[in-house]
Automatic annotation (TrEMBL):
Subunit structure as annotated in this protein's UniProt entry: Homodimer.
Pfam family, one: Lipocalin_2
Function: Involved in the storage or transport of lipids necessary for membrane maintenance under stressful conditions. Displays a binding preference for lysophospholipids.
Origin organism lineage: Bacteria, Pseudomonadati, Pseudomonadota, Betaproteobacteria, Neisseriales
Protein name, per record: Outer membrane lipoprotein Blc
Record's subcellular location: Cell outer membrane
GO molecular function: lipid binding
Predominant place of localization: membrane
Family membership noted in the UniProt record: Belongs to the calycin superfamily. Lipocalin family.
Keywords: Cell outer membrane, Lipid-binding, Lipoprotein, Membrane, Palmitate, Signal
Membrane topology term: Lipid-anchor
Database matches in CDD domains: lipocalin_Blc-like
Length: 192
């Protein structure tokens, strides 16, 4: 018997509530593992990884549990010989009074001149990382995740002038992000 038909037959033998739950869980897992940009969002083309390499400071973000309560957040991107990118995220956990660091790996979703990557900090699970706005001199960047609940504004310096930030916020809002929910990240501690 065809293994796909056999699996479908087993699925139809499950009670309807378990079948629905299984299908819903599978759908959610597939959606959570998506590394594509959200609909209507186009990553920057003409991207140069060597120019993006180095340290970036988090200026603003949409809140998520993995960064909640963190200040002084930075990210360092380093190209690797195998074509991947080492990602080191670091931030100060104010409640614990200590620095936290996470190391991940990023891979391009396609052509390396298109700023669309997938990043993993947890083994085989990847999330989208899509640069949707980038300063010509690589001094600031705006990054979207795989849906509109993920947004970061990064800069090479700890502060971003309001004259630069305001147009980025307008662009993010036009792209459908909840800019009124952004957290502006304090960058007051020493890098050491």
């Amino acid at each position: 018997m065809n293994p796909h038909k056999e699996s479908i037959m087993r699925l139809t033998l499950l009670p309807p509530h378990l079948r629905t739950l299984l299908l819903l869980a599978g759908s959610l897992l597939l959606a959570a593992c998506s590394t594509l940009p959200p609909p209507g969002i186009k990553p920057v083309s003409g991207f140069e990884l060597q120019r993006y390499t180095g340290k970036w400071y988090e200026i603003a973000r949409l809140d998520h549990s993995f960064e909640r309560g963190m200040s002084d957040v930075s990210a360092r991107y380093t190209p690797q010989a195998d074509g991947s990118v080492q990602v080191i995220n670091r931030g100060y956990a104010t409640a614990q009074g200590s620095w936290k660091q996470a190391e991940g790996r990023a891979l391009f979703n396609g052509d390396s001149t298109v700023a669309s990557l997938k990043v993993s900090f947890f083994g085989p699970f990847y999330g989208g990382y899509h640069v949707v706005a980038l300063d010509p001199d690589y001094r600031w960047a705006m990054i979207a995740g795989n849906d509109r609940s993920y947004l970061w504004i990064l800069a090479r310096d700890k502060q971003l002038p309001q004259a630069v930030l305001d147009p980025l916020l307008q662009q993010a809002k036009a792209l459908g992000f909840a800019t009124e929910q952004l957290i502006y990240v304090p960058q007051t501690r020493s890098d050491s």
